[in-house]
Amino acid sequence: MIYLDNAATTRAKPPGVARAVLEALASYGNCGRGAHEGALSAARAIYETREKTAALLGCPRADHVCFTQNSTQALNTAISGLLGPGDHILSTDLEHNSVLRPLYRLREQGAAVDFVPASKRGNLDYSGFERLLRPETKAVVCTHASNLTGDAVDIEWIGRFTREHGLLFLLDASQTAGVLPINMDSLGIDVVCFTGHKSLMGPQGTGGLCLREGLEVRPFAVGGTGVQSYSRAQPGEYPARLEAGTLNGHGLAGLSAALDFLRETGTGVIHAWEDALARRFYEAVRDLPGVTVYGDFTLPLRAPIVTLNIGGLDSAQVSDELAERFGIATRPGAHCAPRLHRALGTESQGAVRFSWSYFNTEAETDAAAEAVRVLAREAAEA
Fold it and tell me: Considering its fold, how many domains does the chain have in total?
């Protein structure tokens, strides 16, 4: 199988990830639930993972890295914990349902939400942020890069905009953490939400949110923390404030190993290789008869994603053909990004997404391009 569905989850992991998980399974106790060596080894390792995550994403305090199961849980925690009825929130048409559905739920509770529209090419009109701004606007919540097209958002521009207007800036880095540069401190980002199993190349069931100092987030879940057990309320200090229940220490051990690989290899090196493969594929398929590629490949920063359709073929049919006939794994359908599909005009057809990781090769990329060429020729001849 040629695996080109890395925007959903990276299948190939750095060699140390599985080893770290196995070692943790054999040795960790429960972090924060005792003073014996098993509990302490888990606590030490998890704190080291906080430090590595903070260093990667420019979070000034390691204790303000709060772990969750994934970016969906992190985004729900941040959105519901900072925003509420009466607030006005700005977002974009590029968003994943992990942002959209919490915002729609807030709207039902009395908040107001506006979305900066995307063009048919998938680009944002940044003047829309100023146009939609209101006196009661409290926050901008947006993705760093579309999981559908790979187009990156200018977060430096949004950071300036939010600072100028005294707004909160919540960033969904699901597709970019570990690939595109993020320094939340210098960019004025209040919250960065991330997942471990995509571009960070760690295990599923890991993720979290990085918070700037002084931010007061209402807990999304409350329960056991191992500290202040006689209090009826969740502890107020981070990270316990947002970490009710037992953490996935075994998974976080794997994430720690993945973060070591990113640091040792260099995120710039990783991004350059993934970007080169995606652009190699794009150049090979962009002019094929009947093939439509979505997104803006003139942008200097992109996630390693190329999404396309072949004629009027349903995206699920194309993806199935790629898997069954050519052994190529892709992702068809709506990609949990309904507003952007609407903007692109692909609501009924969906689209086929190819996405790369550092462990993919040029040979795999060329084989995928050849498969698209074959399917496009057959569609034209049918």
Answer: 2
